[in-house]
Every structure is written in C-alpha cells, then in structure tokens.
Write a structure and sequence with these properties.
five-stranded parallel beta sheet, Rossmann fold, four-stranded antiparallel beta sheet, 8 helices, alpha/beta, globular, 2 domains, Arc Repressor Mutant, subunit A
Length: 229
C-alpha cells in the first residue's frame, strides 16, 4: 500500500526535496505551499499523514492543525524551527502526533513517518487490549480509544492516550524515557527525550484537572516515569 503524504511548506526547494525522498521510500507525496491549499488538498485527497510547517502564509500551521482536527484524525507531524517551543506545545495540544525541528535529517523524518503510520494504522485481526483502570475512577479502553474519569470523558490526544495506557498498564514499574519513546512514539533517537518530558507534563495537567487522585505519575530522577498504583 502506497501511503499518501501531504507536505505543507512554503519553501519550494524543501517541498521538492521531501517529495523526492518520499517517493524513494515508497510514499505518494502531495504538495501544498500554504495553509489554504493544504486544507483543500486534505479535503479532496484524504492523505494518510500530513507534514505540516508551522510558519505558513494564508493560514498558519496551528490553524491548519486546528481545522483538520475538526473533521479528521489524520496523523500530523509538525515541522518547526528550533526556537518555536511554545508553538510546538500548542500544536501537540491541538492534536499533532509528533514534531521535527528544522534543520532535520531526512533519515530521522522518514523514521518518524514510519513510526506514526505504524502507530495509527489498525492491524487487521489484532486482538484488542482489555480496558485498564486507575485511581480516581480513571478508565482507558484501547479498543474504542476512549478515556474517562468517573463518568466524565477525558479528552486526550492520540499520543497522550498511548502514553497513559503504557504507564497505566505497567503501574508500579519505572519506564525509561527511551522505552517510552520507543513504545509510545515508535522510535528511539538519542537526545530526543525532551519530547517525553513535555508530553508527560501535559498529560499530568489533564489528569489533575479531571481529578487530582487520577494523577499518580511520578518522575524517577535520571531514569524516567512510573505510574504509582
């Protein structure tokens, strides 16, 4: 199956470079130079994944992500400059699945594309994992991808759901940042563990807002994180 990858960037040279490498990797690239064009192509072509630059003319990347999430669950990988940490946080909270900082290596980007597609594509015939429960009425159902605290639904992004499910399913065990990267994100690039810290911080804030009792995630200094039973 040839996945369709929508590349959204206002730099023609970068678009063509990414398109060339995506074709070599067996993907079908779709190209957009601004946010408005990206939304139109996404609606018409139904891509399997979107590579989304944040700094765009017409409609910026954050607005594109926000508008996509109203009608679609298509995976989104943001392309950001090194100094755009706030925008990365906002983008992830809007539902982006991952981010890559410019300048980036094509090898790393292709690895992340593969990981996100693997994580978001359902495996035919795969046996669904049973629901898991936690304190404060916390409940996660991997089959329906729904989370709740008591009777109230808990709004989580796809990545936050996977991260919480991994921690909760291994309650009492310390999971290293590297293992969380490998299992929740799907790749293992050295030095990228800051993404884990940012995601856990957002996840803990969501849990505390729903119920202080539900947040049993604790940092183990120099190692990783543990969900305390």
């Amino acid at each position: 199956m040839s996945f369709k990858i929508l590349v959204v960037d206002d730099e023609p040279a970068l678009r063509e470079l990414l398109a060339y490498n995506l074709r070599r990797a067996g993907y079908q690239p779709l190209l957009a130079g601004d946010g408005r064009e990206a939304l139109h192509i996404a609606q018409q072509q139904a891509p399997d994944l979107v590579l989304l630059d944040l700094m765009l003319p017409e409609v910026d990347g954050l607005d594109v992500c926000r508008l996509l999430r109203r009608t679609s669950s298509v995976p989104v990988i943001m392309l950001t400059a090194r100094g755009e940490e706030i925008d990365r946080v906002v983008g992830l909270e809007l539902g982006a699945d991952d981010y890559v900082c410019k300048p980036f290596s094509v090898r790393e980007l292709l690895a992340r594309i593969k990981a996100v597609l693997r994580r978001t594509q359902e495996e035919p015939g795969a046996r669904p994992a049973p629901p898991v429960h936690g304190p404060g009425g916390l409940r996660l159902d991997p089959e329906s991808r729904q989370a709740q605290v008591g009777e109230a639904p808990l709004a989580l992004t796809r990545l936050e759901f996977d991260l919480l499910h991994l921690l909760l399913a291994n309650a009492g065990r310390v999971l290293t940042r590297e293992r969380l990267l490998e299992q929740a994100w799907g790749y293992d690039f050295a030095g990228d563990t800051r993404a884990v810290d940012s995601a856990v911080k957002r996840l803990r804030a969501r849990l505390r807002q729903a119920s202080p009792e539900a947040d049993r995630i604790e940092a183990v200094r120099g190692v990783g994180y543990r969900f305390t039973p």
